[in-house]
Structure formats: structure tokens, C-alpha cells
Write a structure and sequence with these properties.
Number of domains: 2
Radius of gyration: 24 Å
Number of helices: 25
InterPro entries: MFS_dom, MFS_sugar_transport-like, MFS_Sugar_Transporters, MFS_trans_sf, Sugar/inositol_transpt, Sugar_transporter_CS
Largest sheet: none
Keywords: Membrane, Transmembrane, Transmembrane helix, Transport
Main location: membrane
CATH class of the largest domain: Mainly Alpha
Oligomer: single chain
CATH topology of the largest domain: Growth Hormone, Chain: A
Structural class: mainly alpha
CATH architecture of the largest domain: Up-down Bundle
Shape: globular
Distance between the termini: 15 Å
CATH superfamily of the largest domain: MFS general substrate transporter like domains
Strand content: under 5%
GO molecular function, one term: carbohydrate:proton symporter activity
Protein name: General substrate transporter
Mean pLDDT: 81
């Protein structure tokens, strides 16, 4: 399990929406869903686009505004509020009869909840856990996402095989299953402790120490617990130094972060994170998840739910193996290079097959596929599976890892939110546009994603450095950064923080190093 240590503090948006990404495409493509909501062939593309992208739009704004909620009420209760919002949205979608407005509202609410959770939970885990298991706990997010994705694909397969697909239950059941993990998370949330760092930030030091006593199972006078308190004070001192030029409080800190992130050596990191997430969503993986019936149908696949289930299972197994055994060995840059080249080649092959064989057209016309076309279809499906394996150790998780480790600990409260915003924004654009891209490009959709994977290869070669194992100082040197913060700023910042004892430069460096490692 040691391999997971490389991905600690990674703001992975996985805990609920792994299932969403797998079930929604097949569910809204069902004949029963279209019949109940009056969806025609002429309106299908637009409605499918709206339903799918409403989740991403909600997630974007959930991630955007959750910072203020967590600063106001704390990590624990912000988590609970957002889970309740998700549950309300899932209920709306489940009970809808013929009102698309219920579906849209439900998608937005579930998106708001998930988006906020993506920007809350990773920091929450980092603040509750000890460094030795922090990476393992955060690494479980990737596994949880993949498990949710597999469940989503295979739920649809089970419905197709064992239920009347013309019944309304065939789309209500997948909608309702969302409530199961959400209810478990809500119930478990009441047993969580508040973040000690948040309590310290609010001047509630005695409560922070009490929380640490319960979390660490150590007496308050124990050296390890005292070091935890000192580390948190050092972190708050750094945040105070960033806010110092603009006063005190959350808005001063935000302004200080923006000022810091606009400096040479920081803004190139900001651009790198956006490009990484943009290329992640232009890789085609999320498109296959959300629109698997359309894309697998273009290959001439008849039992679409079976092959999407296999696709999800292969992707899950590959991701789990990579994040458990190989993440620490292979670094960041080289896996993305190899993965992007391999994924591009696979997609070029698939697009060429659809262009030459026209399998979906022949099946729709009732014409049996020729032996060569059928063999080509099997090869194309094999390429999709190979694609899923290579994608699992490239742009699948590397953008999250890089976005977490290239910024100093004092900025990660906001940079983690920024990473989530990049993810949701680009994914919204892609899920909104894909039905129109597919209807306009046809087989060219596969070439579209293949070309972007070539762009990802070139971008990685020239612009993505290797960041594995670097300290904060090494990262600053790599990106050419020099902080504007000087001793006067630090003194102002510390004086503006109540109940925080002054700590030396060595203490601040120590907490940065502990968080990174």
C-alpha cells in the first residue's frame, strides 16, 4: 500500500459521482425514459446534453462557493449540508413522472453537492489524518470512484437482462440507487470530528486539542500531539503572512492568494493545472462514460450494456492496480507521455474502423455484418479496452496529483478548489457539446479525441516537468518562483492572528515538508 503515499492531499472528486458518470448515459437513453418525458429523435440530442451537463454546471458552482460555507460552518457540517443537497436532488429525479424540470433540478442539486464535496473532503482528510496514512486514505477515493463506476455500468446491464426495459422502473431504479451511498455518507458524517485546523483558525484552540486527543488517542501533553498543534500554528502563520498586505479574515487571505498566484513562478503552475484538466477531459474518457450507448453503438455493438460494463470493469482494475502498486515508481511525466500516445493510437484505429466499416449503419438497416466488418468490430472494442488501461495511469489521475503537489501548503485551500473548478468547467463544456459533436462529426468524433491526445503528448513533452518527490523549495526553483513575502509581512500577519504564538522559519518549513511527504 505504500505506493499510495504519492497521492496524498489529492482533491479527487470521487465519492458519489463515480456512479453518476457510469449510469446516467444509459439511463436517459432508455426507451422508457424517452417515452415518459416525451423525448423525440429531434429533441434527443439537446435534452441529453442538458441533462448530462446540468450536473457539471452544478458541480462547478458547488466547488466555487463551498469555500465560504466551510469557512463559516466548518468541514464536517459543510459536508453534511452538501450530502443533504445531493439526496434532495436524487429524490427529485427518482419521483419525476413526466416533468423534465424535476430531472434538471435534480441534476443541478446533485452536481452542487458533489462539486462542493470535491473541494471539501480532500482537505478535510488531510487535516484529520496523520501523514503516514494520509496518502492511503486519499488513494481510496480513486478506488471508490472506480467501484462506483463499475456498479453504475453493471446496474444498467442487470436491468436490461432482468427487467422490462419499457417500464418506468428501468430508469427509476438507477436514479434511486444514488441514494444508497449518499445515505451512508450522511449517517457516517455525524460520527466525524471537526477539523482541528479549522478550529484553530477560529481561535478555538481547546476544542482543536480535544479533537486531536480523540483522533490520535493520545493525551494532550504527548509530544506527538504537541507537534501537531505546533504544525497547525505554523500553517496558520503562513496563511496570515499571505493575507497580511490586505488585512485579516477570509477575503484578505483570498486576495493575498490571488496576488501570490499571479507572480512569475506561480502563474505558470496555475496555467499548467488548467491545461492538465482540459486535456484530461478532451481525452474522450468522460465522453465514453457519459455517452457510452452512442459511442459503443457507433461500433455496431448490440449488447451495449454488457460492453460498457466490461469497459468499466477493465478501467477499474487497471486504476486500482496502478494506484496501489505503481504510482510511486513511475513518476508523473513519463506515464502521461506513454499513456497519451497509446490512447491516441487506439482512438485513431477505432475512428478508422467506424469510417470504413459503417457498422452502426448496417445494423440499423438490418444488414448482417460481413465477416471482416465483424472482426474489425471486435478489434475496435479491444482497442477501447486497451485505451481504458492506458488512460488509467495517465490523464486519469495525474492532473489531480500534480495540482496538489506543485503548490505550497499555505495556498492549497484555494488551489484545491481551483483544481476542482477546472475539472468541472471543462467537463461541463465537453458533456454539453458532445451530442452535437457526435451528430456533426460521426466517425470523426473518435479522430477528434485522438487528435487531442496527440496534443496532450506534445504538451507533456515540452511543458510538464517531473514533480514526483520534490520539496517545496525544489518546486519553487523548478518553476522559477520567488515569494514577495518578507519578514515584515510575516510579522504583520502573525500580529493579526489572535491566539497564535510566533514560530520560527524552521517550523514553517517543517509543516510544509510534513504535508508534502
Amino acid at each position: 500500500m505504500g505506493g499510495m503515499r504519492a497521492i496524498e492531499d489529492r482533491p479527487t472528486p470521487k465519492e458519489i459521482f463515480g456512479y453518476d458518470s457510469a449510469f446516467v448515459g444509459t439511463t436517459i437513453a432508455r426507451a422508457s425514459f424517452k417515452k415518459d418525458f416525451g423525448i423525440t429523435k429531434a429533441t434527443a440530442a439537446g435534452i441529453s446534453s442538458n441533462i448530462t451537463s446540468a450536473f457539471q454546471a452544478g458541480a462547478f458552482f458547488g466547488a466555487l462557493f463551498c469555500y465560504f460555507l466551510t469557512e463559516r460552518v466548518g468541514r464536517k457540517w459543510a459536508l453534511q449540508v452538501n450530502v443533504i443537497m445531493f439526496i434532495v436532488g436524487a429524490i427529485l429525479m427518482t419521483v419525476a413522472t413526466h416533468q423534465l424540470s424535476f430531472i434538471y433540478a435534480g441534476r443541478v442539486l446533485t452536481g452542487l453537492g458533489c462539486g462542493a464535496i470535491t473541494a471539501t473532503v480532500p482537505s478535510y482528510i488531510a487535516e484529520l489524518s496523520v501523514p503516514s496514512i494520509r496518502g492511503i486514505l486519499t488513494g481510496l477515493f480513486e478506488i471508490a470512484y472506480q467501484v462506483g463506476s463499475v456498479i453504475g455500468f453493471w446496474v444498467n446491464y442487470g436491468i436490461n437482462k432482468n427487467m422490462n426495459v419499457k417500464s418506468s422502473l428501468s430508469w427509476r431504479i438507477p436514479m434511486a440507487i444514488q441514494l444508497i451511498p449518499a445515505a451512508i455518507l450522511l449517517a457516517g458524517g455525524f460520527f466525524l470530528h471537526e477539523s482541528p485546523l479549522w478550529l484553530m483558525r477560529k481561535g478555538r484552540e481547546s476544542e482543536a486539542k480535544e479533537a486531536l486527543v480523540q483522533l490520535r488517542h493520545l493525551p494532550v501533553e504527548h509530544q506527538y500531539l504537541q507537534e501537531d498543534v505546533q504544525d497547525m500554528q505554523a500553517r496558520l502563520n503562513e496563511e496570515a503572512a499571505i493575507a497580511a498586505r490586505y488585512g485579516t479574515g477570509s477575503f484578505a487571505f483570498i486576495r493575498g492568494c490571488f496576488s501570490e498566484l499571479s507572480l512569475p513562478g506561480m502563474r505558470n503552475r496555475v496555467i499548467l493545472v488548467f491545461c492538465a484538466f482540459a486535456l484530461q477531459n478532451l481525452s474522450g474518457a468522460s465522453a465514453i462514460n457519459y455517452y457510452s450507448p452512442t459511442l459503443f453503438g457507433s461500433l455496431g455493438v448490440e449488447d451495449i450494456s454488457l460492453y460498457t460494463g466490461i469497459y468499466g470493469l477493465v478501467k477499474a482494475i487497471a486504476s486500482i492496480i496502478y494506484y496501489i502498486f505503481f504510482i510511486d515508481m513511475l513518476g508523473r511525466r513519463n506515464p502521461v507521455l506513454v499513456s497519451s500516445v497509446a490512447c491516441s493510437l487506439c482512438l485513431w484505429f477505432v475512428g478508422a474502423y467506424v469510417k470504413i466499416g459503417h457498422p452502426a449503419t448496417e445494423i440499423a438497416a438490418g444488414v448482417p455484418l460481413s465477416a471482416s466488418t465483424a472482426a474489425g468490430g471486435r478489434a475496435a472494442i479491444g482497442m477501447i479496452m486497451i485505451y481504458s488501461i492506458f488512460w488509467s495511469f495517465g490523464l486519469n489521475g495525474i492532473p489531480w496529483i500534480v495540482s496538489a503537489e506543485i503548490f505550497p501548503g499555505s495556498l492549497r485551500v484555494l488551489t484545491g478548489t481551483y483544481a476542482a473548478l477546472c475539472q468541472w468547467l471543462v467537463q461541463f463544456v465537453m458533456t454539453k457539446a458532445l451530442p452535437y459533436i457526435f451528430s456533426s462529426f460521426g466517425y470523426g468524433t473518435w479522430f477528434f479525441f485522438a487528435a487531442w491526445m496527440l496534443v496532450a503528448t506534445i504538451w507533456t513533452f515540452f511543458f510538464m516537468p517531473e514533480t514526483k518527490g520534490l520539496t517545496v523549495d525544489q518546486m519553487d526553483a523548478l518553476f522559477g518562483y520567488q515569494s514577495y513575502a518578507n519578514a515584515d509581512d510575516a510579522e504583520i500577519g502573525v500580529s493579526n492572528k489572535q491566539d497564535i504564538d510566533s514560530m520560527g522559519k524552521d517550523g514553517a518549513t517543517t509543516i510544509e515538508h510534513v504535508e508534502r511527504k
